[in-house]
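Internal ticket - ligand job 304, pseudouridine-5'-monophosphate:
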Amino acid sequence: MSPVTLSTPVAEALAANRPVVALESTIITHGMPWPQNLEVARRVEATVTEAGATPATVAVIEGRLCVGLDDDQLQALAQAKHVAKLSRADMAVCIAEGRTGATTVAATMIAAARAGIDIFATGGIGGVHRGAEASFDISADLQELSQTPVTVVAAGAKAILDLPKTLEVLETLGVPVIAYGQDQLPAFWSREAGLRAPLRMDAPAPIARAHRARQQLGLPGGQLVANPIPETAEIPRAELAPVIAAATRDAEKHGIQGKALTPYLLQRIYELTEGRSLDANIALVLNNARLAAGIARALCDLRS
Ligand code: PSU
Ligand code: MN
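stdout (C-alpha cells):
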C-alpha cells in the first residue's frame, strides 16, 4: 500500500489535469506562532484557490503521508505541540512509527513529486547557515532541489543564512535560481540581498516552459523561483541586519544548533522586531502562493 494519501479535491484535480500547488507544513508548526499559523495556513490555501489552483498542504499524520489536508487536520496540526520537523532523512521513520510530523521544503518536494504535483509554494528555503565552514550546517533543501523535479516558489533564502554560500552550493548542485521580475536575488523579508541572481524571468509561462524543458532533457532536479516580497511589506536589509546579528549571537550563546536553529532564529527575530517579521512573512507567503498558482496553470496549459 502506498504511504501517500491524496485528499479528494487533490486527487480529482490531478486526474482532470487541473493545476495543483503543494504547500509545506513546517512553516505552520515551527515557523509561525499560534494562532496566526492557522490563520495563515488557511489564507494561503484560499489564495491558491482564488488564483485558480487546488492547494495541497503536505504533512505526515499518524503515519500517513497526506497530500491535501482538510480544515480539521490543519487545525490539529497548527495546535499540536512537539510535532516532528521532517526532512528527507526522517520522513520514512515517522511513517513507520505511525507518528505525526510537519514537512520541510525537502520533504514536501518528495511528497509532491510522488503525488504528481510539479509546483510548490513556501516562504523561504533552507540554505547554508552562517558559520557553516565550522558547523557544516547546510539544509537538506538544497540537495533536494538538485534531485527532485519540483519548481519551488520562495521569497529567496532567509537572510539569517549565508546567502553568497547558498548561491554557490545551488550552482554546484545545478539548481536554477530564478529571480522573479528583477535582477537582484530577494532575501526573504527584504526585496534585495545585495547579490545578483543567476537567472531572471518575468512571467509564469516561461517558468513553466523551463520546468518542462528540464523534464524533456531528463534533468532530475527542480527550479528555485525567488519571488521578492511585496514592496509595502518589506523590512529593508539595513534595518534587519542588526536584528539578525543579535538573534544569531543569542543562538550561539544558548548553544542552539541543528534542526532547532531555524525555528529559534525565526522566533527571536519575531520578538526583536515586535511582530513585524511575522507580518512580512505572511505577506510574502501569500505572494508566493499566487505566483505558484499562475505557474501551475501555465504548466497545465502546456499539457492540454
Ligand atoms: N520558511 C519559513 N519558516 C520556516 C521554514 C521556511 O518562513 O519554518 C522551514 C522550511 O520548512 C524549511 C526549513 O524547509 O525551515 C529549513 O530548515 P533547516 O534549515 O533545518 O533545513
Ligand atoms: Mn540544518
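Auto-summary: The longest strand covers residues 54-61. Residues 24, 26-27, 30-31, 104-105, 122-126, 139-141, 259, 262, 266, 281 surround pseudouridine-5'-monophosphate (ligand 1) (CB under 6 Å).
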